Request: fold
Amino acid sequence: MMKSVYIKTYGCQMNVHESEKMYAAFAADGVGHAEKPDDADIIVLNTCCVREGAETRVIGNLGLVKKLKERRHDLIVAVCGCMTQQPDVAEKLHKRCPFVNIITGTYKLGKLPEMTRRIENGEKYICDLEKTETTERGINKAERTDKTGAFVNIMYGCDNYCTYCIVPYVKGKERSRNSDDIETEVRMLIGCGYKEITLLGQNVNSYRDGNTDFVRLLDRLSSVDGDYWIKFLTSHPKDLSDDVIRLISERPTLAKYIHLPLQSGSDRILSLMNRKYDLSSYMRKIDFARSLMPDIGLSSDIIVGFPTETEEDYLLTENAVERVQYNNLFTFIYSRRSGTPAASMPGQVDENTKKERISRLIDVQAKTAAAKAAACVGRTYRVLCDGTENGKSKGKTSEDRVIIFDGGTPGEFTNVKVLSAKNSKLYGKAVN
Ligand code: SAH
Ligand code: SF4
Reply:
């Protein structure tokens, strides 16, 4: 009987796509996709360590996997990704969970089918944390479960070393994929009917392959014939150029949406974070984008409770968030990541203060989001229908606003009139 693998993904969209690529690598090896862990011969945990929460969940879930393994001794268990790329964490995990057969990091995901076969052939334990900073050539094969939107890597790694962040240590140096390969992959996906292409990289604005920088890449990709839109994650405010903003405003195939993580509204904290921009240069970019696209969708990541953050620093963040008027905000409590400079900075903020600040910030954003949603009532948007919710269609606008509506066909664009708004959510109906 055909063997099957279940992959549990933690963390960001980049990890979701890594798992899609792993499913494809297993499929090429004759291993199918199990719908749930109980049905699987192989269980893979694709981990994240950017914040503490994801790590805690991995440990919790390993407890459940252990129970499965007690019932089925031939079950193969692998843990991979950012968390286990850290040698001390990998070692601790092996001691604590000796039933895990394979531990690898972020570099060898494509080799998991081969490692799995070695375990089937009698090896008891494999730990491979070797770093091979190569960028593959050719089309990335991925088993995409979503049939409307597709992720495409354009680069890997990060060289920015924000002082709170573990990513550069676990994902290695920044490296860009070949631009012809990316274009071929995007053409293929559009040809297959995908309507939303999301380009992925830790700092997409520093993409470079020969003469092709990010704006040139976007220009090439958004010139492909077809009915689709392109989004990208993540832009670093220090590198987002006016040329990119201008191109977004000119091209119908580029979604009118930018995720631009501010992290903090205090210049002192931004400098301690090594972000290399200040609030006024950030605001200039926002103002420029809005001058060309008044309705552009903006979202951001904010960290509260970075070491030494005072009430005044926090209030500067709150003010900045109110001033920008984001459609969507991802708020995080600063999480001490061992090995990063911020982890050993003096002035760590106590947990209660961090929790109190994040809940105030969430309240501020909720008010903004509700006001912005209310202002959409009566307008008609072009919406990409990408799912259902409570028997109704669910979709997104070019500005990344979510709308629940009557009518519409999954995987297709539809015009939707917004009839009401509740909190940040929009409700409407398809119109012609
Ligand atoms: N490369 C992207 C995203 C990296 S991780 C960028 O620079 O924007 C996604 C988000 O997680 C970050 O934007 C940041 O807000 C948050 N984050 C990263 N490290 C963190 C830490 N140690 N504690 C809390 N939040 C963190
Ligand atoms: Fe982390 Fe900064 Fe790189 Fe983003 S840009 S991945 S926050 S180091």
